Fold:
Amino acid sequence: MSGITVHGIPGSPFLRSVEITLKEKDVPYHLRAMSPADMKTPEHLELHPFGRIPMFEQDDFRLYETQAIMRYVDECFPHPPLTPGTPRQRARMNQVIGIIEWYFFPKASAPIGFNRIIGPRLLGLPADEAVIAEAMPMARTCVAEFERLLGDQAYFTGNGVSLADIILAAQLDLLGDCAEGRELIDTAPKLGAWLDRMLARPSFAATQPPEVLREAA
Structure:
């Protein structure tokens, strides 16, 4: 069971999270790479009525929302499992994902990343230093909490990689290319070592953001 196509803009940490999940499972798929000009076109809105990415197709089944796609892939292709086995481990995974989606990405990673990387390099926009400064307190709070929740474990739910590890590492990898991201990671040595472990995985090496984004940072 495959026949999978994933749609999205290379460099998006959300697209990358889906691709990493598929590669961790060794599931073949086709990437339909989009550009910013493709966003919110009729063809795009047919697949995602909210005009976001990524989108997922498997034969006649369509799905959007990163978490939904990752969880579906994890259930359909159970080896290796990316959802831990105990209620407490699953609760921790879901807690970390919740922090990413409610606090870290919208209030920290997105405003910093847009103003340091996406806007200047891809759109020719100057960085809004006030927006970056406003985002940093939330970014520090989130990183400190990630450091606390990780503790001395190899990964957030113990010894095995989970969906939470994949989503957060995809976010931090790109953010870590700019000065603010490096500053944040430097304050959290356990999180920094965890990120190094994640980035050493073949699934991360195979899904590197485009060099143009690295250069922008």
Observations:
- Strands lie at 4-8, 30-33, 55-58, 61-64.
- Residues 4-76 form a domain with the Glutaredoxin fold (CATH 3.40.30.10).
- The two ends are 39 Å apart (CA to CA).
- Residues 107 and 135 are 6 Å apart (CA to CA).
